[in-house]
Amino acid sequence: MKPFTYTALPARVIFGVGTTDRLPDELERLGVKRAMILTTAPQADQGRELADLLGARSAGLYTGAAMHTPVEITEEALARYEDLRADGVVSIGGGSTIGLGKAIALRTDAPQIVLPTSYAGSEMTSIIGQTEQGRKTTQKTLKVLPETVIYDVRYTLSLPAVMTVTSGMNAIAHAVEALYAEGANPVLSLMAEDGIAKMTAALSRVRAAPADLDARSDALYGAWLCAVCLGSGGVALHHKLCHVLGGSFDLPHAETHTVVLPHALAYNAPAVPEAMAAMRRATGSQNPAAALFDLSRESGAPTALKDLGMPEEGIDRAVEITLENPYFNPHPLERDALQALMRAAWAGERPS
Ligand code: NAD
């Protein structure tokens, strides 16, 4: 066996159906007496339910979480956190809400309990991205890693059909790149393969029966495994392309991951035989890149960057930006090949 390094991040994870009931005890465990509950406006009802559950242990609710963690929102939420004399945060929602909780923890060291409702995976990482005057910066610090994550499968029942798939593909992308990123190791590869297998199988089952708790449980469990891959593993070309497309072309997060992933995987396939063997086992397909593309297409999820608002003339610029400051990648980054990749992703061609 090749030598390797594996770093586990310290987080407590509670998983199941109805696990939200554990929230009061978990706050007690962290010594939090007055938790501020964070969410987005569309998920305000879920935030209010938590406030009811917590009673006097709820300091109040803030429902202004927004995409890309804008600093103005963080400052507003922070002022409320101080007004309420809160001593911890409970974040219920997807990556945007979790990002706000992390931003508050970064500035106050507030303990965080997170109840994820999407598959994006931010809850298991020590990464925070923030936006100020249109510029997004990212940092990595254990200060933002949530202390406790409560996965309650019930919250994922309300995920709309297309968001279930795009968010699931976002999760799968973390695991795919952990299989071949710099620092890939056998422990994370186990989690990655099982995460991809659970999520791909569950997405088909959820499509047939969106309220199937077993299928939803497998999807959320798969999302957790994939999130660990993002938190402890590395990323490569796929994440670089998505960061370029999100940052410079303002394309939506999960949808962009969904469109780009099959193409990034096909690009790297010749350089990563072991990762491809794991992908074949996980997807049950001899052509994993095409299998992911088909899963999205059959589910009505986007498969072309042009449908996400990417201008065709932006392709060259996206490739330039990718090459200016590239991430590690197992396959050499070649301008012509990257242009072909981007063109195929823009047009929505099925990878062969
Ligand atoms: P999101 O949090 O922006 O959610 C999109 C919308 O869906 C929101 O209105 C949200 O309230 C709603 N929603 C979430 N769960 C729902 C549910 N179960 N039912 C109904 N509606 C629901 O989107 P996201 O894809 O979860 O997160 C994307 C953001 O997270 C991006 O900004 C991305 O950069 C960030 N992110 C960060 C990390 C990290 O490690 N820092 C990792 C992954 C994603």
TrEMBL record:
An annotated Gene Ontology molecular function: metal ion binding
Annotated Fe-containing alcohol dehydrogenase-like C-terminal domain residues: 164-346
Pfam families hit by this protein: ADH_Fe_C, Fe-ADH
Domain Alcohol dehydrogenase iron-type/glycerol dehydrogenase GldA: 10-152
Top-rank lineage group of the source organism: Bacteria
Record bears the keyword Oxidoreductase: yes
Keywords associated with the record: NAD, Oxidoreductase
Family, similarity comment: Belongs to the iron-containing alcohol dehydrogenase family.
Protein name stated in the entry: Alcohol dehydrogenase class IV
Annotated organism of origin: Aquamicrobium lusatiense
